[in-house]
Write a structure and sequence with these properties.
This protein has about 290 residues and is an alpha+beta fold. Helices cover about 45% and strands about 20% of the residues. The strands form three sheets. Strands 2-9-4-7-10-11 form a six-stranded antiparallel β-sheet. About 0% of the residues have low confidence.
Amino acid sequence: MKALFEKIPLGLDEAFAFQEFHVPRFTMPWHFHPECELTLIVRGRGMRYAGDSIARFDDGDLVFLGGNLPHYWWNDADDRRGANSVVVQFSAAFEKSALFELREAMEIRRFFLRARRGLLLSGRLRDQIAGDMLRMKTLNGWERLCLLLEILGRLAGQKKPRFLASASFSPELGERDGHRLTTVCRYVNEFYGEKVWHQKAATLAGLSPAAFSRFFHKRMGKTFEAYVTEVRIGHACRHLMEDDASVVELAFACGFNNLSNFNRHFLKLKGMTPRAYRKLTNHPAA
């Protein structure tokens, strides 16, 4: 599935777009756009695809999608209730506006950087934001903007975010120590199909190997080696969705030295085999 570019209907003087959809089923194919997006599934069930994440969705599903993160929803064939969603999409210009440079809004700016992989919202926070999004239908432009800022403030306050896509879909991972992390992540994403050297990554970060290990684990919450594996699996998922190459070919192309090692890591990270993952993406309308 090659992701298609979607043009969001935003005017040059508009901060965000608010849309509600009542359709027999969701028909937008695998697509992306530079705008961030909040999507609430009011009614509908099936499979949700976001980056390399594949999961079930049902009534009340609520996700935040970072800019340029490919996504789409696939309705169950036996769900004949019709599909209803509420979507808020805001421009990259809004995300980078001077408002979020203010000290009072810096947490929201950090949230934008943190959430590029997409987030699944749940529990009380989901219920609050879902209610706010439904309330937007009754508000005017200014009131909607104020409510959107409130929603972003709540999102920025999350303590344990649940990411959707793996790290390979969001190489720009943070503002603090951003240059070091970005340089290292670009190195991994460029050479994931070859031997990725810990020493090389440490040199790029300007640190000794031991200091780099501590730095990376503290900032990323995982070892450098675990991150490399996650990136390789993320790229493998993308190829499984878009290419016709065999699983064996993809395993070696993504830097794994044998098929069993690839299958073991894939199952651990995705909860299914590579072949099962590919089967899930082979929808005729995708």
